Give the backbone structure.
Amino acid sequence: AVVSTQSTGVIYFYEWDLELKWCGKTAMSNDNITGKIIIENVSEENTEDEVDITTRQEKSGGEHSKLHQIVKQQLTPKCREIIGQYIQFLQTTHGKQVVLPTKGAGQGINAVSTKTKPDSVNSIKKQMDAAVISKSGPKKTENVTLQRTEFSLKDTFKCRREELFQCFVNPDRMKAYLRGEADVDPRESGKFSLLAGAITGTYLEIQPEDKIQQHWRFKDWPADMFSSVTLTFKDTGSSTELTLHQTGVPQYSLEQIKQGWTRYYFQPIKMTFGYGSGSL
């Protein structure tokens, strides 16, 4: 992590990809059940709610899946909470250790002592005490001021919920309405690449016929910038309602992305499979 000063004040730069290992047992098994928690996109551009967290189990099996579900339900929120503490600590506590330059002062910035009272030291602060304070600042600052936003879209399709769900996980269906290659691995942590690599990402969560969460990026975005996409499917009886919510979208790309969902997904799905009119 880097804490630097610009003419407007203190600016923070950090980007982390973390991989944690978990291990446990259940009452029905003496085997050590293991897996991973993967945390991506911890950066100055994202809040803790925009960080991507995925969990994996090393082996398949009933007890492995049970413990994996506990990890997802209990440890994932805890990871977000700790990341939020990290962000708050960096900005409200560690940033105070940077002394802003005054008129007549030499080049560069100085850091005050990092000594703290013993009862104020915690695991987050121990990590932050090793942070680097830059004397020159970053060479580029455009990513710091890049505005990111979110949006939601809704549309209705004349088909059953499972049929529409398959349009976002089934490679053959996706190839049909995209009219091109669809490199898709439809499982949690599986990758996808669509429209000749224009859209890439990872499936974060798949709840059959109910919800899909994705780590999603457009090729023209700055390097390593991803957004989060959530698709929810609702059976209305006479049709299926699709709700899309996307966060972390660069402001300059907002209209392009919104139009792209309609132009390359929603309309082609209706035209290819006849889901735009008629009855179930």
User: Anything to note?
Assistant: The radius of gyration is 23 Å. Residues 4 and 84 are 21 Å apart (CA to CA).
